[in-house]
Design goal:
3-stranded antiparallel β-sheet; 243 residues; mainly alpha; 12 helices; elongated; single chain
Length: 243
């Protein structure tokens, strides 16, 4: 290992964990002066990370409070270093990191915020379903159709009322209400459990008739498949179909 690489690694470890002081022996300054100088770097770096995660997880921050959020970010940074020069990619492990913290829905809330943040930077689908061609489908071919979702679509589910919490910033009567969403184009579309299942089966490239069969079997009643198709074509979630 080169001396320069070792120096860089010692510096990095100290920035993220102040108690690791190997770097102090490699400076020309006294320990106290070296600590003062290194604190400038630490404060700048951790300050940037707090700013980035505050922007990505604003409702999470509002719920836990500024002080606790800053403390969580500092603990997070000690376990998960930034691996990219693009700070928009920093914080992907943050929802999982929050799993052991209160309130219990914190992890799911942060996950929704992360998906929402990522959807802004995700590749946007330029395709739009050809309605004229779709309407000309023969009845015998309709149930063979395989749909394609918007390329940036992400499905989200939680046993907590996360979408309501995210929209209303905690002013929710019943936290224990399972909620579902599809996220794309920097938008969060609240959907039902049946619609979530419908979109999940589309992602698995199931033909429409198989989707219909599986949904009916799951919910044990008939379902208006046409209404779901119309909705998701209308909001840009479904962008293509094939036979």
């Amino acid at each position: 290992m080169s001396d320069l690489l070792k120096l860089q690694q010692d510096f990095c470890r100290h920035i993220y964990k102040k108690s690791d002081r190997k770097i102090l022996k490699q400076t020309i300054y006294s320990e106290s002066e070296a600590l003062e100088r290194l604190n400038i770097y630490r404060n700048n770096i951790l300050g940037n990370f707090v700013s980035v995660l505050s922007s990505t997880f604003p409702i999470t921050k509002k719920i836990v409070g500024d002080q606790k959020f800053d403390q969580l970010v500092q603990k997070f940074c000690q376990k998960f270093y930034s691996k990219s020069g693009d700070l928009n990619e920093f914080g992907t492990e943050f929802p999982q990191f929050l799993k052991s913290y209160e309130p219990k829905y914190l992890k799911d809330l942060a996950q929704l915020e992360l998906f929402y943040h990522q959807s802004y930077f995700a590749k946007k689908s330029e395709e739009k379903l050809d309605l004229k061609k779709f309407k000309k489908l023969q009845p015998e071919n309709f149930y063979k159709v395989k749909f394609t979702l918007n390329c940036g679509s992400v499905l989200f589910s939680s046993k907590f009322a996360i979408i309501s919490i995210w929209q209303k910033e905690r002013k929710v009567r019943n936290f224990l209400e399972a909620q579902f969403a599809v996220i794309h184009s920097n938008k969060v579309f609240s959907i039902s459990e049946t619609e979530f299942l419908f979109l999940s089966l589309i992602l698995k490239k199931k033909p429409l008739f198989k989707i219909y069969e599986e949904i009916c079997k799951k919910i044990k009643k008939d379902v208006d498949i046409g209404a779901m198709i119309n909705r998701f074509i209308g909001d840009g979630t479904i962008v293509k179909f094939d036979l």
